From TrEMBL, chain A:
It comes from the Bacteria. Belongs to the heme-copper respiratory oxidase family. GO terms for cellular component: membrane. It comes from Hymenobacter setariae. GO terms for molecular function: cytochrome-c oxidase activity; heme binding. One of its GO terms (biological process) is respiratory electron transport chain. This is Cytochrome c oxidase subunit I. Its main location: membrane. Residues 1-31 are annotated as: Disordered.
Automatic annotation (TrEMBL), chain B:
It is found in: Cell membrane; Membrane. Belongs to the cytochrome c oxidase subunit 2 family. It comes from Hymenobacter setariae. Binds a copper A center. GO terms for molecular function: copper ion binding; cytochrome-c oxidase activity. This is Cytochrome c oxidase subunit 2. The chain crosses the membrane at residues 6-23, 44-65, 85-110, 131-152. InterPro entries: CcO_II, CcO_II-like_C, Cupredoxin, Cyt_c_oxidase_su2_TM_dom, Cyt_c_oxidase_su2_TM_sf. Its main location: membrane. The keyword Transport applies. GO terms for cellular component: plasma membrane. Residues 62-159 form the Cytochrome oxidase subunit II transmembrane region profile domain. It is a multi-pass membrane protein.
Length: 622, 366
C-alpha cells in the first residue's frame, strides 16, 4: 500500500504523474520558461507569482502574530499580577511603565492593538492571504491568479497598511486605544483618551489601505475560481479548500466596503466637524457642537463587516481542515455536498446576524428578537460541519501528521468555542454575558484559536509545496501538544471568570468586591497564556530551519489527490512545466474499494481505474 | 549588566537546544527512522489523544465544580432568577453536545489510528444521516430561541406604570444619579447647560427640573419595579449590575432604559452572604477611557419604608443656591435663555414617556 512506503517511493507509483496527452496548452510552455533568470527584485520583492505573494503574506503574518502575541503577554502580566512591579519592562516600553506599573492608557492600547493585529493582520491577511493565494491557482489548475499585477498590489497595499499600523505603536500619544471595535465617541475624541489622537488617525488610514488590499485580493480569488479552472474541474469537483476561499472572498468583497464607509465617516467626524456618530457631548469642560449623530449607527456599520469578518477568518480554516482530515484519515470527506451547502448557508447567514453584538446597546428590542432568531439558526450549518468531520474520522486509517493533529485540534476548539455561542446568541442571556470574559473566552476559542490551528495545519501540510522541504514532524508534535493544552488552560477557566460577570477591557478588577475573587485563576490564565505564547517559537524555529535545512520533500508527500501535488516539487512560474492537467473526478477518492492505491488523484481519468469505478462512473469512463 | 547576562544565557540555551535538535535528526537518519512515514509516533499521538480527553476532561470537571460557587453572583432581581434558570438549562444542553462530540472526536482519533494493512472505509455520504443531524439541532435551537424570545420580550417590555424612576448619567469616570422630585417628572436637561455646579445640565426654566434632585448613591426600594433611565454625556458607557442581571449601554444623544424588580435588600444580601461589607455594585461595561475599570457606583436596595425616609430627606435643585446662580450665567453664555430648551423639552417628554402615577404613596405625600 502506498501509504506504508517511504514517501520517496511514491514517485514510482506514478498514478499521480501519469501523463495524459493534450496539446492545446502547449503555447504556454515556452512563455513560462523564460522567467527563470528574473532579477531578484521582481522575483522576491515585487513578484507577481502567486506562490511568492503567498509566502510574503505568510511571513508578514507571522511577524504580526509575534507582535500580537507579545502584546497579549504584556497585558496578561498586568491581569495576572496586578501588584507586581514591571520596571524590568522599562527598556522596552519606556514611559508606558509609570511608577513600576503599566500605564492605564497603554493597557487599553495593548488590548486594542492585540485585537486589531490578530483579527485583521494575522487571521485575515496572514491566513486568507497566504492560502487563497497559494492554493487557488494550484488546486484549480491555473498558471497564476487572474491578475498577477493586482495580486502584487494586494500584498503591497497590505505591506503599506502594516507599516502604518506598526508606526502607530511608537507614537508619543500611543496607538489607538478605543478597543478593536473603535466605537465612537471614544475613538473620535482625543480629549477622551490620548490614543484617539494620532494613533487613531493612523489606525484608520492603515485600515483603509488594508481594505483596498483585501478587495484587490478578493476580486482576484473570485475571478480565478470562476474563470481559470482547468478542463473538467466543475464547481462540484472543487476541493473544499477552494469552496471555502471562494465564499470567503465573496464575503470580504461584500462586507469590507461597509467598514471602509464607517471608517471614512469616522474620519469626517474626527477631522471635518461632521456629526455622523456624535451628539450631545460635554467633555473636558466643553460642550461640543455635534448634534443628531448616532454612535449606534457606527456599531451597525462596523458589525456589518465585523460579523462576516469572523467567518472570513474561520471559513478558510474550515476548508483546509476538511482537506487535511480527509487526506490523513485516508477517507473521503463525509458529506461533500452537505459541506458545501453548510458553507453557503453560513456565508448567507453571516450577513444577517451582525446585531447580535448589539443586543444591549439600546437598539430596539424587536430587532434584538429578529437577530437572536437568525443568529441561533447559524448553529445548524455549523453543527452539520462538525458532524461531517467526525464522520470523516469514523473508520478511517488515521496518520497523525502535525497538520492532522492541528486539524483535529481545530475541530475540538471549534466545538468548545462554538457551543457557547448558543448562550451569547440568546438575547436574554446576553444581557448578563455581554462584554464579559465569557465573550472573550468564546471568540478566542471559536475564531481565534481555531483559525490559528487551521493556519498551523495549513502551514505544516503545504510547507513541502511552498518550500520544497518538509517541516520537522517531532517538533510539530511538541508544538501541537503544548499549544493545544495551553489554549485550553487559558480559555476554559476564562469562562468561569466570565460567568461571574467580569467585564472585559478592565485594567484591574481589584476595585470591585464582586470581581476580585478570582485572583488565583487570573494568575493561572496568565501563566498558561505566556507559556503557550513561548511554545510558538518552536514553530517559528521549525519553520525557518526547515526552509533551509529540512528534509527534502517528495512530489506528493501526503499521497493526496488534489492538483497541487502534480506540480514539480518546487513549482516554477506557471506552476506546471508541461500543460495543465485536466480533472476527471472529485478530490476525495481515498481508499476507494477496488483501487490499487489508497488514493486516486483528480487528474486520473476513470478509464485508467476500471477496477474501482462505481456504477455511475462506469458510464462516464473516458 | 544583569540584562546582558540573561540575554547571554538565553542565547546559549537556544544554541544548546539547536544542537540537541540537530543531533536528534542525525541519529534518526543513521538509525533509519528519519523518513519512515508512519512509525511509533503515530501510535504515541493516538494514545495522547485519549489521554488528553481523559485527563483534560477530568481536570475540566474538577475545576468547574471547584469554582462553581464562585461563578454565580447571587441573584437579586425577579427576571434574574428566570435568566439564571435559562442559563444553566442552556449550559446543560450544550454540555451534553460538548461531551458527546468531543468524546467522539478523541475516541475516533484513537480507535481509527493507522494500522498496517487496514484500509479506511469508503463512505462518502448518506443523506438520511445528514437530515437527522440537521433537524435535531434545528429543533433544539428552535426551543431555545422560543424560550429566549419569550423572556426577552418580557424583560425589555414597557416598565410597569408605577415604577420608581432613577436616571443615571455616565461620564468619564463616574455615574451621576438623579430622581424626579415630588412631581414624579424628570425635568428637561440640556448638555449645553452643564457646568461645575450643574453636572446634569438641568434646564431650570423647566418647572419639572426644579424639584429633581441628584444623589451620590442609588437607592431603590425592594420588591418594587425600578425603571432606570440611562444617558451618557461624553462617550459610550454601559450600566452593568451583575447581581440584578441588568445591562444597558449609556449612549450620548440617545437615552436608553432598563427596568427590573429587586428582590433582596442590601442588608438581606449581607446576611445571606455572611459578608457585612457587601454592596451591590454598578460597573461600567463598555470601554470608556483610561479609568474605565474604576468607574463604579453603589446601589442600595432598601426596605420600602427606609427608601421613603431616604427620599424625603433629599433636597431639590431649587434649594441648591449654587446651581440656581450659575444657571443664569451658563444659559446666557450658551444662548439658551429662559425656555431656550423648549425643543429639547418636547423631546424629553417623549423620551421620558409616561407621566407616572405615584410610585410609592409616600413619595407623593412628601
Amino acid at each position: 500500500m502506498a501509504t506504508n512506503l517511504p514517501a520517496s517511493a511514491n514517485a514510482q507509483g506514478g498514478i499521480g504523474t501519469a501523463p495524459v496527452p493534450h496539446t492545446e496548452h502547449d503555447e504556454h510552455l515556452h512563455e513560462h520558461d523564460e522567467h527563470h533568470d528574473q532579477h531578484w527584485m521582481w522575483k522576491y520583492v515585487f513578484s507577481q507569482d502567486h506562490k511568492m505573494i503567498a509566502r510574503q503574506f505568510l511571513i508578514t503574518g507571522m511577524f504580526w502574530a509575534i507582535v500580537g502575541g507579545t502584546l497579549s503577554s504584556l497585558f496578561r502580566l498586568q491581569l495576572g499580577w496586578p501588584e507586581a512591579t514591571l520596571d524590568w519592562l522599562q527598556p522596552l516600553l519606556g514611559k508606558w511603565i509609570d511608577g513600576g506599573k503599566l500605564s492605564k492608557e497603554f493597557y487599553l492600547a495593548l488590548v486594542t492593538m492585540h485585537g486589531t493585529i490578530m483579527v485583521f493582520f494575522v487571521l485575515t491577511a496572514g491566513l486568507s492571504g497566504t492560502f487563497s493565494n497559494f492554493l487557488i491557482p494550484l488546486q484549480v489548475g491555473a498558471r497564476d491568479m487572474a491578475s498577477g499585477f493586482m495580486n502584487m498590489l494586494s500584498y503591497w497595499f497590505f505591506f503599506l497598511s502594516s507599516i502604518i499600523m506598526f508606526v502607530s505603536l511608537f507614537l508619543e500619544t500611543g496607538p489607538a486605544a478605543a478597543g478593536w471595535t473603535i466605537y465612537p465617541p471614544l475613538s473620535a475624541l482625543p480629549q477622551a483618551i490620548p490614543g484617539s489622537g494620532m494613533g487613531m488617525t493612523l489606525w484608520l488610514v492603515s485600515m483603509v489601505f488594508f481594505i483596498v488590499s483585501q478587495l484587490l485580493g478578493g476580486v482576484n480569488y473570485v475571478t480565478t475560481v470562476i474563470n481559470l479552472r482547468t478542463r473538467g474541474l466543475s464547481m462540484s469537483k472543487l476541493p473544499l479548500t477552494i469552496w471555502a476561499f471562494f465564499l470567503t472572498a465573496i464575503l470580504g468583497i461584500l462586507s469590507f466596503p461597509v467598514l471602509l464607509s464607517a471608517a471614512l465617516l469616522l474620519v469626517f467626524d474626527r477631522s471635518f466637524g461632521t456629526s455622523f456618530f456624535l451628539s450631545d457631548i460635554y467633555i473636558a469642560g466643553q460642550a461640543l457642537h455635534n448634534q443628531g449623530g448616532s454612535p449606534v449607527l457606527f456599531q451597525h456599520l462596523f458589525w456589518f463587516l465585523g460579523h462576516p469578518e469572523v467567518y472570513i477568518v474561520i471559513m478558510p480554516a474550515m476548508g483546509m481542515v476538511s482537506e487535511i482530515l480527509a487526506t490523513n484519515a485516508r477517507k473521503p470527506i463525509f458529506g461533500y455536498r452537505a459541506m458545501i451547502g453548510s458553507l453557503i448557508g453560513i456565508s448567507l447567514l453571516s450577513f444577517v446576524v451582525w446585531a447580535h453584538h448589539m443586543f444591549v446597546t439600546g437598539m430596539n428590542p424587536f430587532l434584538g428578537s429578529v437577530f437572536m432568531f437568525l443568529t441561533l439558526i447559524i448553529a445548524v450549518p455549523s453543527g452539520v460541519k462538525v458532524f461531517n468531520w467526525l464522520a470523516t474520522l469514523w473508520r478511517g486509517n488515521i496518520r497523525f501528521t502535525a497538520a492532522m493533529l492541528f486539524a483535529i485540534g481545530f475541530v475540538s476548539l471549534f466545538i468548545s468555542g462554538g457551543l457557547t455561542g448558543i448562550i451569547l446568541g440568546n438575547a436574554t442571556l446576553d444581557i448578563q454575558m455581554h462584554n464579559t470574559y465569557f465573550v472573550v473566552a468564546h471568540f478566542h476559542l471559536v475564531m481565534g484559536s481555531s483559525a490559528f490551528f487551521g493556519l498551523f495545519a495549513g502551514v505544516y501540510h503545504w510547507f513541502p509545496k511552498m518550500f520544497g522541504r518538509m517541516m520537522d514532524e517531532k517538533l510539530g508534535y511538541i508544538h501541537f501538544w503544548l499549544t493545544f493544552i495551553g489554549v485550553y488552560l487559558v480559555f476554559m477557566p476564562m469562562h468561569y471568570v466570565g460567568i461571574a460577570g467580569f467585564p472585559r477591557r478592565y485594567y484591574s478588577w481589584t476595585g470591585f468586591d464582586a470581581f476580585s475573587q478570582f485572583a488565583d485563576l487570573n494568575k493561572f490564565i496568565s501563566a498558561a497564556a505566556i507559556l503557550a505564547f513561548f511554545a510558538q517559537f518552536i514553530f517559528i524555529f521549525n519553520f525557518f530551519y526547515s526552509i533551509f535545512r529540512g528534509r527534502r520533500a517528495t512530489q506528493n508527500p501526503w499521497n493526496s489527490t488534489t492538483l497541487e501535488w502534480t506540480t514539480p516539487i518546487v513549482p516554477g512560474h506557471g506552476n506546471w512545466p508541461g500543460e495543465i492537467p485536466a480533472v476527471y473526478r472529485w478530490p476525495y477518492d481515498y481508499s476507494k474499494p477496488g483501487s490499487e492505491t489508497d488514493f486516486i488523484p483528480q487528474n486520473v481519468p476513470y478509464s485508467q481505474t476500471a477496477s474501482s469505478n462505481l456504477p455511475y462512473e462506469r458510464e462516464i469512463e473516458d | 549588566m544583569t540584562a546582558l547576562t540573561i540575554l547571554l544565557v538565553l542565547v546559549l540555551l537556544l544554541v544548546v537546544f539547536g544542537l540537541l535538535f540537530r543531533l536528534q535528526i542525525l541519529t534518526s537518519i543513521f538509525s533509519g527512522t528519519y523518513v519512515r512515514e508512519i512509525g511509533m509516533s503515530n501510535r504515541i499521538n493516538a494514545v495522547l489523544m485519549l489521554v488528553f480527553m481523559v485527563v483534560g476532561g477530568a481536570a475540566f470537571f474538577w475545576s468547574f465544580s471547584e469554582n462553581f460557587n464562585k461563578m454565580n453572583p447571587p441573584v437579586a432581581s425577579i427576571h434574574g432568577h428566570a435568566m439564571e434558570r435559562m442559563f444553566w438549562t442552556t449550559m446543560t444542553v450544550i454540555g451534553i453536545a460538548f461531551v458527546l462530540t468531543q468524546a467522539l472526536l478523541f475516541v475516533y482519533s484513537y480507535k481509527y489510528q493507522h494500522k498496517e494493512g487496514r484500509r479506511a472505509y469508503f463512505f462518502a455520504h448518506n443523506n438520511t444521516i445528514e437530515v437527522v443531524w440537521t433537524i435535531i439541532p434545528a429543533i433544539v435551537m428552535a426551543s431555545l430561541i422560543f424560550a429566549g424570545w419569550k423572556a426577552w420580550t418580557r424583560i425589555t417590555g414597557p416598565a410597569p406604570k408605577d415604577s420608581v424612576v432613577v436616571e443615571l448619567m455616565g461620564k468619564q469616570f463616574n455615574w451621576l444619579v438623579r430622581y424626579p422630585g415630588r412631581d414624579m417628572k424628570l425635568g428637561v436637561i440640556n448638555y449645553r447647560l452643564i457646568d461645575a455646579s450643574n453636572d446634569f445640565g438641568f434646564d431650570l426654566s423647566d418647572k419639572a427640573a426644579l424639584d429633581d434632585f441628584t444623589s451620590t448613591e442609588i437607592h431603590v426600594p425592594k420588591g418594587h419595579p425600578v425603571l432606570i433611565k440611562i444617558r451618557s454625556r461624553d462617550v459610550l458607557h454601559a450600566v452593568y449590575m451583575p447581581h440584578f442581571r441588568v445591562q444597558m449601554y449609556a449612549v450620548p444623544g440617545m437615552p436608553t432604559r432598563f427596568w427590573f424588580t429587586p428582590t433582596m435588600t442590601t442588608d438581606e444580601m449581607r446576611a445571606h452572604l455572611g459578608n457585612p461589607k457587601f454592596d451591590y455594585e454598578l460597573a461600567c461595561n463598555q470601554i470608556c477611557g483610561a479609568s474605565h475599570f474604576a468607574m463604579k457606583a453603589k446601589l442600595i436596595v432598601d426596605e420600602p419604608d427606609d427608601y421613603q425616609a431616604w427620599y424625603a430627606k433629599q433636597s431639590p435643585n431649587s434649594a441648591n443656591a449654587d446651581m440656581m446662580a450659575s444657571y443664569k450665567q451658563t444659559s446666557q453664555n450658551a444662548g439658551l435663555g429662559k425656555g431656550g430648551s423648549l425643543g429639547a423639552k418636547a423631546a424629553a417628554i417623549e423620551e421620558t414617556g409616561e407621566t407616572p402615577a405615584a410610585p410609592l404613596s409616600a413619595q407623593t405625600a412628601m
